[in-house]
Give the backbone structure.
Amino acid sequence: MSDRLAKGGCLCGAVTVEATVGDSVGACHCDICRKWSGGPMLALDGGVGVRVDGELNVVVYPTTEWAQRGFCSKCGTHLFIRVNQTGRYILPAGLFDIDEGLRFDHQIFIDKMPNYYSFANETRDLTGAEVFADFAAGAKT
């Protein structure tokens, strides 16, 4: 499937997001994503051309030296992870009203995944070290 313009927003409607996304959904099992979302984060790559409207309602929190996370200040909806070095956005898949044509095909920080859940899908699995190597090389994980 080709890239598509996806539109979504927070629970209360104060923030809307538009991004060109592909069909590839990934799961992140890092400690921060699991703490932030209560489980693995299922996400789409939004690249660098993401449009966020309602920015006055967006709080950005620097969670690591390499990324920031944004959320709605009114309802708390998780909006994005933005990579500092590249400006690339990783967006929660549930932010958008799309499900057809998406495929769950990769998992990152697989070495941090706890033993109380697993996915049956066959995926490309990367450890934390492999993710950071990909980021350094500018690859789309």
In short: The CA atoms of residues 17 and 116 lie 33 Å apart.
